[in-house]
């Protein structure tokens, strides 16, 4: 493989049609990334069709299972999913391909040979990986990445003794079909009571009865499995059989790996809950500080981590205007607010954070890792 620095590196993109991949392409266009690389688009189902025009005309889609074509790339970026990674990555490595593999899927995340990338938080871990010859760069779980984008400064300053995080996760984390179904469920709920809603004199308990009946009878649930609109689901991802969901296990396991603390991990734990938001994950945290600190000092430490962090004053107007999924969606902002000490003492901190799980939670760390690899 030719080193990617120097001439424009050949970058293969797989999974660009999916939800994470589409956001990645959108961000790469916005940041002018395609001018720095020689892109080649692959698909596992559409090979031979026109590839998207990203500035140099329409090429043709390559076959995502064509090992030789993939191996001609200096860098491969996959947003295709874990099954694809599990099938193709070992074959490429066994065939001697030593290019860089950037991946949104979780399949390789906890491998010793892989670094979980979130450069505003762990550039030091990425640099150590580069120096050690690492070739596998994996995006973190969306909830964990967003949590560390919000509170990574406190970890970096050595202030966190332990942390709980209670999540309010958006439908997009489950997939595109779940986002569609959430809206369809909202429509069914509204339709069930529309006639009564139009009448200002109708009784609220009659409206509620109609909505309750819709939960039982009319809601489409093929993708989500349960009504989510007007409800919530306090279990995200697989049951690990020990009281934990897999999503909850990731907070401590991935969080400490991202921070480079796996040898001496900080306890990070909590419950993960799906709510009816579209694409922003929210989290309420409790942090046990290693030493008491003023709120001003803590806010400065948090805000100093990266330029996307927005501290929202702990006041009603600012909170309701700026610290919601509706306010943050589609932006790179990491909003952090409701910051105050708890009644337990000045070494206990609570806060609430909101971030777009398709941007910093998925596509943006991958895009930035590509930039790091091509040295721009
Ligand atoms: P997705 O939307 O299901 O897309 C995956 C692939 O499905 C596409 O690349 C495309 O591949 C194929 N596909 C089939 N029909 C399609 C259609 N009508 N429209 C678009 N694509 C279609 O997957 P995703 O949610 O982006 O997730 C990709 C990976 O990222 C997964 O491993 C996931 O766990 C991980 N991840 C997801 C999130 C998240 O929030 N969703 C966050 C972080 C990481 P072909 O072109 O080959 O047909």
Explain what you see.
The chain is 38% helix and 20% strand. It is of the alpha/beta class and 376 residues long. The strands form two sheets. A seven-stranded parallel beta sheet has the order 3-2-1-4-5-7-6. Strands 9-8-10-13-12-11 form a six-stranded mixed beta sheet. Strand 12 (334-342) and strand 13 form a beta hairpin. It starts with 9 loop residues before the first strand and ends with a helix. Residues 15, 17-21, 43-46, 64, 79-82, 104-106, 139, 142, 172-173, 175-176, 357-358, 361-362 line the site of NADP nicotinamide-adenine-dinucleotide phosphate.
SSE topology string: EHEEHEHEEHEHEHHHEEHEHHEEH
* Spatial shape: globular
Strand content: 15-25%
Q: Main β-sheet: number of strands, strand sense, barrel status?
A: 7 strands, parallel
Strand order of the largest sheet: 3-2-1-4-5-7-6
DSSP helix count? 12
- Which cofactor or ligand species appear? NADP nicotinamide-adenine-dinucleotide phosphate
Any idea what the radius of gyration is? Answer: 22 Å
Number of strands: 13
> pLDDT average, as an integer?
96
Query: Which class best fits the helix and strand makeup?
Result: alpha/beta
Oligomer: single chain
Low-confidence stretches: 1-5
Distance between the termini: 20 Å
Quick overview:
The protein has 12 helices and 13 strands.
Can you tag this structure with a few keywords?
globular; single chain; binds NADP nicotinamide-adenine-dinucleotide phosphate; six-stranded mixed sheet; 376 residues
List the helices and strands and how they pair.
Blueprint: E1 10-14, H1 19-30, E2 38-43, E3 62-63, H2 67-71, E4 75-78, H3 82-94, E5 100-103, E6 114-117, H4 119-131, E7 136-139, H5 142-156, E8 160-168, H6 176-197, H7 204-217, H8 246-259, E9 268-269, E10 280-289, H9 295-303, E11 309-311, H10 316-322, H11 325-328, E12 334-342, E13 345-356, H12 359-373
Parallel strand pairs: 1-2, 1-4, 2-3, 4-5, 5-7, 6-7, 8-9, 11-12
Antiparallel strand pairs: 8-10, 10-13, 12-13
Helix pairs in contact: 1-12, 5-8, 5-9, 6-7
The structure holds NADP nicotinamide-adenine-dinucleotide phosphate (NAP).
């Amino acid at each position: 493989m030719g080193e990617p620095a120097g001439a424009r590196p050949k970058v293969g993109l797989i999974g660009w049609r999916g939800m994470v991949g589409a956001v990645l392409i959108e961000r790469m266009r916005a940041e002018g990334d395609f001018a720095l690389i020689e892109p080649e688009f692959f698909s596992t189902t559409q090979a031979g069709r026109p590839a998207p025009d990203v500035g140099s005309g329409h090429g043709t889609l390559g076959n995502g299972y064509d090992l030789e074509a993939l191996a001609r790339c200096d860098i491969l970026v996959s947003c295709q999913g874990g099954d694809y990674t599990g099938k193709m990555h070992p074959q490429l490595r066994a065939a001697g391909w030593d290019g860089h593999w950037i991946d949104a899927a979780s399949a390789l995340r906890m491998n010793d040979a892989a670094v979980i990338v979130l450069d505003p938080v762990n550039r030091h871990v990425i640099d150590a990986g580069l120096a050690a010859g690492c070739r596998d760069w994996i995006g973190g779980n969306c909830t964990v990445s967003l949590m560390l984008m919000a509170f990574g400064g406190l970890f970096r300053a050595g202030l966190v003794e332990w942390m709980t995080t209670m999540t309010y996760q958006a439908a997009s984390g489950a997939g595109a079909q779940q986002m569609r179904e959430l809206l369809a469920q909202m429509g069914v709920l509204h339709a069930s009571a529309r006639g009564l809603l139009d009448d200002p004199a109708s009784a609220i308990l009659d409206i509620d009865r109609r909505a309750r009946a819709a939960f039982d009878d009319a809601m489409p649930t093929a993708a989500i499995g349960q009504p989510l609109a007007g409800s919530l689901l306090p279990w995200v991802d697989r049951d690990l059989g020990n009281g934990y969901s897999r999503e909850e296990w990731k907070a401590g396991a991935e969080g400490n790996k991202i921070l480079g603390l796996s040898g001496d991990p900080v306890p990070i734990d909590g419950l993960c809950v799906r709510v009816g938001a579209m694409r922003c994950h929210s989290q309420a945290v409790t942090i046990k500080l290693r030493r008491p600190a003023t709120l001003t000092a803590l806010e400065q430490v948090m805000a100093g981590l990266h330029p996307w962090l927005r501290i929202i004053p702990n006041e009603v107007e600012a909170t309701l205007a700026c610290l919601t999924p509706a306010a943050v969606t589609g932006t790179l902002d990491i909003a952090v607010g409701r910051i105050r000490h708890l009644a337990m003492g000045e070494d206990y901190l609570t806060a609430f954070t909101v971030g777009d799980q398709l941007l910093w939670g998925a596509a943006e760390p991958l895009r930035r890792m590509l930039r790091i690899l091509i040295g721009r």
